[in-house]
Amino acid sequence: MSEGDFASRQAWFQLLGPVQLLAGSRPVPVGGPGVRGLLALLALRANKVVPLDDIIDALWGHDPPATARTIVHGNVSHLRRVLRSIQGDGGDGARIHTRPPGYQLTVDPSQIDVHRARALLEYATAAGAERRASVLAEALALWKGPVLSGVPDSVHAPELEDLRLAVHGARVDADLELGRHAELISELTTMVRENPLAERTIGQLMRALYHAGRRADALAVYRRAARHVVGTLGIDPGAELRELHDRILRDDLTDPASSKEPPPRLVRVTPAQLPAAIPRFAGREAELAWLDGLTEQARHGVSVVGVVTGAPGVGKSTLAISWAHRNAGNFPDGVLFASLRGFDPAHPPLEPGDVSTQFLLGLGVRPAELPEKAHERIALYRSLLSDASVLVVLDDARSAEQVRPLLPPAAGSVAVVTSRARLDGLVVANAARIRALETMPPADAVRLIEEVAGPGDYDKLAELCGYLPLALRVAGARLAASPQWTVEDLVAELADERTRLTALDVAGADVAQASVRAALDVSHRGLPEAVGALFRLLGAFTGVTIGPHLAAAIGGTAAPEARRRLRTLAAYHLLTEVGRDVFAPHDLIRLYLRDLAESELAATEREAVLRRSVRYYRAAADRARRRLLRIVDPLDFTSSLPEEASPALSGFDDALDWFALEWPNLLETCEAAYRAGRFEDAWQLARVVHTYRVVRPLRDEWTGLVELGLAAAKASGNPLAHCWMLISRCAIALTFGVDGGGLADAEHALELAVEVGDKRLLVSANIHVGAALSSSQRYDEAIERLRQAIDETERTGDLALRGQALNNCAEAEKLSGRYAEAIEHQLGSLAIDRELGDDSYAVVSLNNLAELYLGTGELAEAERCAHQAIDLTTSRGFVLQEGVSRAALGRVLRARGDRSQAFDQLKLAEERFRDAGAPWPAELRDELAAAAE
């Protein structure tokens, strides 16, 4: 393939102008505004998963059509076809993948104009002025008109305008540095006229006029801008613009094109205030490189602020101090350091004015010269650093307000801030870069222990420490201080969750620096009162993750307020937002939470958390299951939870997503209820959750849940509970082809139904007895019993049970060779499935019809039903049923003589059975072998 052919097969995504997909330079039609909007949303977040809910919100706002999900699914399929038409079916190139909870465009970012523009801007920061101007001009050329043209008005990306302004401003700075003053005046004048509040552009125009010999015009520009700012906003222009005005008045503005001399140093003493670093520093290469990047940016004429944030004990201070020692030589005017005591349990946070006193003394100001007022000391500090290249390390900050007055003002300076809080305010107001410090990779964690304790086999020890640096250092210190302790001894102590946090203390050391529990205590005690109260309650919840609705139920508040409190906990790094509105604690924080709940919550409070979580999950799962399947049991808990307190589950897909996300919590809550002796809660929750595994069977998990529910039902002494859980276990046997088909359970359930005297329960039990008889090859008995159930449900008008009876009767008739009766009954079942909108049962009906038509030799009908079933199973994610559907299609294709395609379908079917934990039937194994011959 020639280079030109290769280029023509590369997809190029244009967002900076009319949204287009191009093959090389040739536009490729993709469709209307909705499709282009979807393309833009995926490209803006390239290589990241874009949740389906976010796509719908962006395309339709708060009023999406009922078919929004279907429209998006269809448009994704269309875009996939378009990409294949450009790139072919090979593995390279852009691809759209389904990644729960949405979609992901995997693509080389250089194929997207937005990412290309960002890359050019980043590259330019390290280039000389000539190259910088050229590169930034290339970046600006990527804008082909108003961004995101041709997409729905609801699709917004305001960051693209910020990017354009950043690129343009940097290009103008480069041109000013090159002395192109006269050429810039016209361009900048137009821009200031269009946006008279853009102070950066105003300052650039003033510089261009001044250096072009038009000092009076530069001052006039300032006066007009000042009048407009005061008249519009009621405030003075910013400090930087006022300072530029003053320098033009004094006629002391240096032309960067005529002088490359460094600015005069005003610092009288070169401070070196860093505390000692640890002797050996393991790991953190990526984070050190990120900090190095701050220095590189500062070298190109900007003042940079970097925030290192993370959980207690994750090594923020160690990283910042170690890096600062390595890089102190890059800052000729010195290094300033202050511990701001933001989370010090023994002292209040330091005020900026007090820190400025320390810094001024370090800069050589005599005590007698220190201004009395705090704001005057801060002003003097800034003045002394106005032309200095310094590194300022501000450790353990509590808030952006505590930090902001201490940031160095001069270009070429760097401030590194560490904090347990995220300090988002510094990002908004000071363009700070944030690096969230995570736990260490396993290999680096082992290296860290080795640095403290010497060589050894520390893999398991590092794992039990949760790869948290503080815990790793404590474990290493314990081994180093007590040679009689072996690694195996310490691993055994840490393996017990009840004693793990106690084991991660070093006796006699500074508690705040040598105890994981103490480090977490500091963060916990620093929380706002309401947030701290929720944090303690979470310790009594035994699940894996927490979301706003569950937190609201546990904390007795509304979901929006619970979401705000969870995000506050995430901002303090006591929880991690692992998905959209899904929060989870680190393992050691989870143990700390459990201990906290046991020590600070009364038994009644812990019981209330379990009661509320069971009530929430029982009602929410009941709502969700009713969107998956028609419900035949009498349990209804939906009224126990108001709509606004429940997750929004608009349809089948939402319910599936909810169950998949909450499944570990549902199992854990069910087990917790059983352990606490709340047997009614346990079996009821198991029964409503069981529906999810009917739709998406996974044998081991489903069996464990139902066995737990059955044990709870027996312990409750409630025959109704016992009956329904036996029916649940029978469903597992029928689904996975267990020997006997659960006949003993079905017959026992029937006995209990007679005892209870519930006629509807009696019919349901009889249907399961009939299905189990069929599975045991007692076809005549099965058909007789199921036809009785059909007659009974026809008499009562119970469509849900009638559909089940028809389906099971058709299955028994198919296995006994009575195809005509089976087809009639299966078509009746399918009609009910569609009337009730029940895709789960419709798939079963379509699969059975495919088998039946194959048996009668109607291959075209059989293939049609199999394809319909595959479309439905793949769109809904029914793994086991997809295997059944593909097996049916494989048998049909083999009957038509297409052995190659039959083999492919049967192999896929085998994989799906394996994914669901279901045995691969012997007859299908034979079919596969025959297709392979």
Provide structural commentary:
This protein is an alpha/beta fold and 933 residues long. The N terminus is likely disordered. It contains 43 helices and 13 strands. Strands 8-9-10-7-11 form a five-stranded parallel beta sheet, sandwiched between helices.
Question: What is the compact description of this entry?
Answer:
The chain has 43 helices and 13 strands. The protein is an alpha/beta fold. A hairpin with a 5-residue loop joins strand 1 (11-14) and strand 2 (20-23).
- Summarize the amount of helix as a percent range: 55-70%
Question: What gross morphology would you assign?
Answer: globular
Largest sheet: 5 strands, parallel
Count up the helices.
Answer: 43
Share of residues in strands: 5-15%
InterPro entries: AfsR-DnrI-RedD_regulator (IPR051677), BTAD (IPR005158), OmpR/PhoB-type_DNA-bd (IPR001867), P-loop_NTPase (IPR027417), Sig_transdc_resp-reg_C-effctor (IPR016032), TPR-like_helical_dom_sf (IPR011990), TPR_rpt (IPR019734), WH-like_DNA-bd_sf (IPR036388)
Family: Belongs to the AfsR/DnrI/RedD regulatory family.
Keywords: DNA-binding, Transcription, Transcription regulation
Protein name: DNA-binding SARP family transcriptional activator/predicted negative regulator of RcsB-dependent stress response
